Amino acid sequence: MSEIEGVYAVWLRELKVFTREKERVIASLISPLLWIFAFGTGLGSVVTTEGVNYRIYIYPGILVMTVLFSSVFYGLYVIWDRRLDFLKEVLVAPVSRTSIFIGKVLGGCTTVMIQTVAVLIIGFFIGVPMSLDIFLKALLLLFLISVALVSLGLSIGANMKSPEGFMLVANFVMWPLFFFSGALFPLSNLPSWLSSATNINPVTYGVDAVRGIVVGVQHFPLWGDIGVLLLLSLVVIAIGTLSFRRMHD
Amino acid sequence: MDYAIETFDLSKHYGGLKAVDKLNLKIEKGEIFGLLGPNGAGKTTALSMLCTILKPTSGTAVVNGSDIVKEPAKVRKYIGIVFQQPSVDDLLTGRENLRMHTLLFGMPRETRKKRIEEVLSLVGLEKRADDLVRTYSGGMRRRLELARGMMHNPTVLFLDEPTLGLDPQTREHLWKYISALARREKMTILLTTHYMEEAELLCDRVGIIDSGRIIALDTPKKLTAQLGGDKIILKIKKPHIAALKKLECIKSIRRKGEILELVASEGGYNLKKILEKAGQVENVEIKPTTLNDVFLHYTGKEIREAEAEGGFWQRMMNERRA
After folding, report:
1. Where do the structural domains in chain B lie, given as residue ranges?
2. pLDDT in tens, A60-69
């Protein structure tokens, strides 16, 4: 019982802190908007991909990108928490590290979902074939992706001492995950080196599933995509829990 | 007799550096005990081990009847901690910070609200409880942390430099809160400090710590009484030290440039005798001896000087070089 309350306490704290920092919400929306409107509209005026206007084609990719960037950057706050000794207060509480980690993951996912919903709503106004059904299915998939990626961000945060170091590693991880995911291009007819890169990138399967739901273009079976995402989540959660246990020892 | 805290050769080594070296303490229930020493003396390290944040290299301690190495979870349940660095969340309100603590410590639902109100009024923060901590002054934050530390009715409260960085007035206020709390809630308090006044005015007993070892331990009064006199500070260009040494009332002599610091029994009464022997005195001051003089007596340096040496990291560096 007290473990669940511990999870709840950490989750509630993350949510409150997030909603009180309005800049964080607004800043997180700028880059998806730029990708959709500047990049998507620009190329969309001349390019059609797999029978779909380019702006609409990359829209699912940008949804996943929003999740990817927000989730991984969320790990940065672990470092601030540590610097302020806030985490110490949590770590000396009679609550297991696993519960603290789960609370953090859920808190992160909730904040990421708030940002994602905003980008999903934009979909209704730019010609994406959106409906409530699609909206909810996409949200569920994006939530699953964020569980894995928030855990990834937290694992990096738990192992880094400085924000600078975190940014370095995070950028090194995020950009390849984004560019090699097929968020911006179709997976068919790729040169073999690029094809292998996209195949080993777990984010590819997230983009594929969301694109299948939203635009109706999909390369892998949905159950395969979800299977990869579930497996990834389990692995990264395990790594994250271990990293949290090791902290402060 | 059961002690609130008892340590057994508690030690923490970092490589060759002995941050805490075979610490043996017995702290009684209901006592306010102070660990006094310069930065880097090992105070925080000792405290971190006692509240199970840090594992000892060797030795152990029993807090509230539970072993800190074997049963850390049990220890944690009954202790409260106020950290040296601010650890309240400044994007939450005071009340939200406390509420989070009640959840983390699994306090029973029925008592939560009442207890929050109780501790808020104990530290005088009722009126600001619903403001973001961001808007609090340094003293208010400390009070909030104090409130949080005793939220779950701990039997032992650890305070790591509770008044560090606060202005003198706020500091005095905080001392009043702390001693009132200790009496009212019948808690044992272990605090670390490098402020002499804090140890003198607040603590029942003081352990003076330097380079990881306790060098003197007693009530502040007895510690200063040990020196056996008053402090006499003379400004004098050419002191006749040999003549002074012959005087029976002189306990110790220390020279710093033109300043001569003496400890003399019954300083006021013997002053005339001393001035006759000392030489051409330009200025005289008599003060009661303080814990700083005790520190000086045992280590040959003042707490301030020990700090100027750079504390823990400096010791660490020296160790590396050696």
Report:
1. 5-223, 228-288
2. 999 999 999 9
CA distance B174 to chain A (A): 21
Statement: B228-288 belongs to CATH 3.90.1140.10: no
Considering only alpha carbons, which residue of chain A is nearest residue B71?
A: A94
CA atoms of A39 and A176, how far apart (whole Å): 19
Question: Which residues of A have a CB under 8 Å from any CB of B?
Answer: 1-2, 5-6, 8-9, 12-13, 16-17, 20-21, 84-86, 88-95, 248-249
Contacts of B91 in chain A (CB under 8 A): 16-17, 20-21
Q: Is the CATH code 3.90.1490.10 the one for domain B5-223?
A: no
Read off the pLDDT of residues B140-176 as tens digits, 9 standing for 90 and up: 888 899 889 888 889 999 999 888 878 888 888 888 8
* Token code pair at residue B149: 């530390």
Give the pLDDT of residue A7: 93
* The model's pTM: 0.79
ipTM: 0.81
The pairing of strands B213-218 and B205-210 is antiparallel
